[in-house]
Each structure stands twice: as C-alpha cells, then as structure tokens.
Amino acid sequence: MYSQGLIGAKTDTDEDEAFLAAFQARIDAEEKIEPNDPMPEGYRKTLVRQIGQHAHSEIVGMLPEGNWITRAPSLRRKAALLAKVQDEGGHGLYLYSAAETLGVSREQMTEELLSGKAKYSSIFNYPTLTWADIGAIGWLVDGAAIMNQIPLCRCSYGPYARAMIRVCKEESFHQRQGYEIMMTLARGTPEQKEMAQDALNRWWWPSLMMFGPHDSDSQHGDQSMKWKIKRFTNDELRQKFVDATVPQGEYLGLSFPDPDLRWNEERGSYDFGEIDWDEFWRVVKGGGPMNRERIVARRKAWEDGQWVREAALAHAEKRRARREATKLAAE
Ligand code: FAQ
C-alpha cells in the first residue's frame, strides 16, 4: 500500500494559532507549499478533495468523447480526437500523482470514485448525441476548463500548480480543435449548421454549471481563496467565461439558448439568465442522464485492468530482485 510520508500536515489537535498564522503568512507571501512542508490538515484535505475530483473528471471525461472515436468523419478528425482523449488520460495521471504527494493512494481515490463518495465534474454526465457534440465539448467544456485552470497554475500548492501548466497548454489546443469543428459545421450545409446549433443549445448551460454553485452557496470557496488554492470565485470565473465565449459564438453565426443574455454597457460584461440549480444538484448527486453509465464504465475498466496492475507489480518486483542479486554478486 502507498504510504509516502510526504505529509507535513499537522493533526487537528496540534494546530495552534501561531502555526496557522505562520502558515497563512507563507501563503500571503506567495510562497509555494511543498509536500514535506508543515500544513494544516484542512489545507491538505481540501487539496485531496479538489485534486482528486479534478483527476476523476479528466478520466471520466474521456468517456463522452471516446464514444465518437470510431465514428469521427475523417482520418484527420479521428487522429486529433484520439490524441485529445489520450491527453485527458494523461492529465488524470498527473493529477493523481499530485494528490499522492498529499499521502492518499491512487487505489483509495479510485475506490472513492467508484463508490460515489468522490465527485467528478457534472458536465461528463451528459450524452454525446452527434458529431457536433465533439466540437461543442472542445470549444465550451475545454474552454471552461481553461478559464478555471489558468489561475490554478498559481495555486499555492506546488505540485498542483506545476501540473496545471502543462495541462493548460494541452487544453488550449483542445479548445481550438473544438472551435474548428464548430466553425466547419457552422459554415457547412444547413443541416450541419443546425447540428452545431443543437449542440450549443444542449452544452451551454451544463458548461456554465462546471464553475460550481453561486459564491453564496459555495461551501469551500472562501477558505480556498484565503489559502490561494482558488484565485477567483466560482461566479467570477463563470462571468469571465461568458464574456470570452459569447463573441466566439456570434462569430460562428450561432445563437445562445438564453433569452436574458445581453451586453451590459455599464458593467462591461454580459448579463445572463439564471442557471437551473435543481438540475445542477440533481446531476452532482448522481441523477444526471449518464451518471450510472459513467460509473459502470469506470468500474469495468478498473476490474478489467486488475491483471495489468498485478502483472506490472510482479514485473517491477522481478526487476528489483534481479538488481539486488547483481549488486550482491558484485560486492
Ligand atoms: N460538478 O464549495 P464549492 C476537465 C461540488 S475540467 C460536480 O464551490 P469548490 C477537463 C464541490 O466539489 C472539469 N461537483 O467547491 C476536460 C463541492 O462538493 P464536496 C474538472 C461540483 O471545490 C475537458 C460542492 O459542489 N475541473 O475535466 C461542481 O470550492 C474535456 C460545493 O462547491 C476541476 O475539477 C461540478 N461542476 O469549487 C476533460 C477543476 N461544482 O467536494 C475531458 C478544479 C462544485 O464538498 C474533456 N476544481 N461541485 O462534496 C475546482 O476548481 C473546484 O473544485 C470547483 C468547485 C470550482 C469545481
């Protein structure tokens, strides 16, 4: 079992005020916190929760797009989609590794995902019904992911911040890949443009939900901002996303499924309608259209991969024993 003693976390009982104040002073001075540094248990737990949820999102997020790899309309599209889905798998692995530096094992995180204890992003519980959904996911979902993740490159926890730098570079390529699909469809036949519009209609609101509840309902927001895990609140990032994305949709000649969406001259931002929060919480709690299928698919992958994990461990053990034997023989 994994028991990297990386943690400098103090237990709840020995967190005196002087320690908490000294830790906060390091955060305020923009110092990066590293795995062996002393840290409050709450800081460690918040990071394990957020990084774990983020890693699961990348891995579960491979499923909706993976659904279209065999049906991509050309070899070029297939190669790009295959590479994108593979990138998401890589992001999951960096993130699991970053979480492991906080003393939690990958097995433990996976068990929490499969048992429903750990969350993953609500967005991946919607189905990909047409090829245009692959364009909409790249444009909107990766676009929202970048908006949320660029500030995470400055997160106070070093391993998470560093993982995010590479992730963001790749997400930015994904976003362009998606937008290019949307542009091709929007400039195609009337049926293709209709497909693009339909995808935007279905993915717009779930994309806005990715940023989480309103700040007033965000349980962890204030503390995470104080610890500089988060650099912007949920509502601030959602607004930035709307402001960046609406002109892109207009350029495509598509319309947004929100009658309240309009430019507010005074604020220098777009006003937009209210999110259906009942739908958001229903999906977060497991009642979305694809929640069950996603977990069934992940459970199957975990069970089918059991022999691979065992074989890899046996192989590593054999190599270790061989190295030891060679070393002994040389002495
Ligand atoms: N879905 O107190 P807050 C991607 C939960 S990008 C599900 O505001 P926090 C790339 C939240 O966990 C997508 N649950 O929470 C890709 C908490 O529950 P808990 C992943 C949600 O943490 C693209 C409760 O609600 N990105 O995968 C959601 O301060 C294309 C209260 O919320 C990240 O994870 C939601 N949308 O703020 C892959 C980024 N929103 O844990 C494939 C890192 C909230 O107490 C294809 N994470 N909840 O049981 C974050 O920035 C934050 O965790 C937030 C939530 C902003 C998501």
TrEMBL record:
It comes from the Bacteria. Keywords: Oxidoreductase. GO terms for molecular function: phenylacetyl-CoA 1,2-epoxidase activity. Its EC number is 1.14.13.149. GO terms for cellular component: cytosol. It is an enzyme of class 1 (oxidoreductase). SUPFAM superfamilies: Ferritin-like. InterPro entries: Aromatic_CoA_ox/epox (IPR052703), Ferritin-like (IPR012347), Ferritin-like_SF (IPR009078), PaaA (IPR011881), PaaA_PaaC (IPR007814). Transmembrane segments: none annotated. The keyword Transcription regulation does not apply. GO terms for biological process: phenylacetate catabolic process. PANTHER family: 1,2-PHENYLACETYL-COA EPOXIDASE, SUBUNIT A, PHENYLACETIC ACID DEGRADATION PROTEIN PAA. This is 1,2-phenylacetyl-CoA epoxidase subunit A. The gene is paaA.
